[in-house]
Amino acid sequence: xxxxxxxxxxxxxxxxxxxxxxxxxxxxxxxxxxxxxxxxxxxxxxxxxxxxxxxxxxxxxxxxxxxxxxxxxxxxxxxxxxxxxxxxxxxxxxxxxxxxxxxxxxxxxxxxxxxxxxxxxxxxxxxxxxxxxxxxxxxxxxxxxxxxxxxxxxxxxxxxxxxxxxxxxxxxxxxxxxxxxxxxxxxxxxxxxxxxxxxxxxxxxxxxxxxxxxxxxxxxxxxxxxxxxxxxxxxxxxxxxxxxxxxxxxxxxxxxxxxxxxxxxxxxxxxxxxxxxxxxxxxxxxxxxxxxxx
Length: 294
Ligand code: ARG
Fold this sequence. Notes:
The longest helix has 19 residues, at about 1-20. The protein has a single domain, classed as 5-stranded Propeller (L-arginine/glycine Amidinotransferase, Chain A), CATH 3.75.10.10. It is an alpha/beta fold. Strand 7 (about 155-160), helix 4 and strand 8 form a beta-alpha-beta unit. Helices cover about 30% and strands about 20% of the residues. It has helices spanning about 1-20, 60-75, 120-130, 165-175, 215-225, 235, 260-265, 275-280, and strands at about 30-35, 80-85, 100, 105-110, 135, 150, 155-160, 180-185, 195-200, 205-210, 230, 245, 250-255, 270-275, 290. It contains 8 helices and 15 strands. It has a 3-stranded mixed sheet, with helices on both faces. The radius of gyration is 20 Å and the shape is globular. The structure holds arginine (ARG). Arginine binds near residues 51 and 97.
């Protein structure tokens, strides 16, 4: 009789211990990022639903918010390289769009809108000046890491609003990684990085917002990533998927509060950031950050 009580006690104690333990021990790995200060950031045209040229932008505040992000990366031990902002390119702060770099190979961008077209050349010049030798000028429209996300197994590739489906074959051939094409269907989530974030590339672990994808693409994601963290609409609308993970720390917009606990439950350390002024351009943490994978 008493042994039954003991067993019950032991079982619940063990369960409690399991519950308090984080799911996994995570490790941060040092990263190299490319960013561009928002010296000339403004919203004077609208190429996504977040951009309203009639809404004023507080430029000093945008600068402070961006500097906080840059300094946070550095404080976490990452290297941040800087592009020189150009006065005629107000969206240049969204450095993720300028190229995709894997194994030191650079696939340049080709922007969908004329307003951002010249940014690609600024990125290519930077790569040339900084010792990158394998640089491809793309044949097809692709907006860099805005639409390409890298896991150890796949190159996930968004299409529907910006990057051309033809850029997917081009990226697959250039990087020699299997590309998984994903159809974006909601204009608010016009780039893949507004709806999906790689949390741990080595483990193929991601988080995403299903509502941004076509039914077929949702099924593809569910098959390939059955354990993904599924984000809900309010967190997606707060740009919570526009996040950057170093394997342990996940820097994400502070308003995406619904993601904090699910991330902690998986052993990640959420780092809330305020990039509210840059959201007026339709971008946040990830959009401001291009990862240089060497
Ligand atoms: N205003 C920019 C555009 O519409 C924002 C780009 C955001 N970047 C990103 N990686 N999602 O192109």
